[in-house]
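User: Run a structure prediction on this.
Assistant: Running it now.
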Amino acid sequence: MSTDISYTPEEVAKILKISKFTVYELIKRGELAAYRIGRKVRVEGADLELYKQKSKSLNSLALPQEPSIINEQLSHSHHFDRDESLVICGQDIVLDILTRHLEKQFPQIHFLRRYIGSIDGLMALYRGLANVVTAHLWDSDSNEYNTPYVRRLLPGHQACVINLVYRMEGFYIAKGNPKNIATWKDLVKSDVRFVNRERGSGARVLLDEQLRINGINRNDVLGYEEEEMTHLAVASKVARGEADVGLGIEKVAMQFVNLDFIPLHKERYDLVIRLEDLERPHFQALISILKSPAFRNEVMGIGGYDISQMGEVIVEI
């Protein structure tokens, strides 16, 4: 890659194999340097190369590859100051609302958001790189969400699983469903182009489990290797006609006028916290916020979520 040319955000997205929405988020957060020519955004080749080198440094610390807003101290240490920082992992907008409520109560605490998938979040919790992570990982053997994965990925560590919301997972399809997509087996139709989520995300786990159960070879799914990092990016690709179907949550589908949604699976979206942290003041505040009318009403106002068990302890492991 030449360092003396500039790239558009779309070209950067193709080079890094991420969505253009993630590129704009990186620029917005100052993690990737960019400049404007009129209304156009450009990224210098040298700045893109610098970002890639910084990402490699993070990866050497076993951090997941999805861009984060964890401050620079994490690039120099495996651990952060747990009395001054609290890292919350997950991608749902409900977590942004939760973080805002926490910031009001604890202005002295740095609440840092990391936008990564469920498995990467649990691994970050195991390695001491996160305090609160979310998971929506379905286990087909037990028909249970999250608990089997927490047991496997946090060996020797006690954890508490607390419900945040329930969400409906399903297919994003074009308005009117022109390809007549209804079930998992329709993904192998020769004229159906699929767009996938990244490895480690809850949606990817659900897909792979369903392919296995239905006896579907992933190599027969056109577009299986095409990955996007968020539900929003998947839905956008279907809405633009670049794919015929993708898997994600119903809430995101509501944001697109030219998409239909086929509900397939009601999923439990939980918070996972180390049991030893549960009695600390800001964790107790987190649970209180989940049960507060103000927070619950704000989430209800967004729509697309079932909050009937919000704040309830599902299991202590």
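Confidence is low (pLDDT under 50) at residues 58-83.
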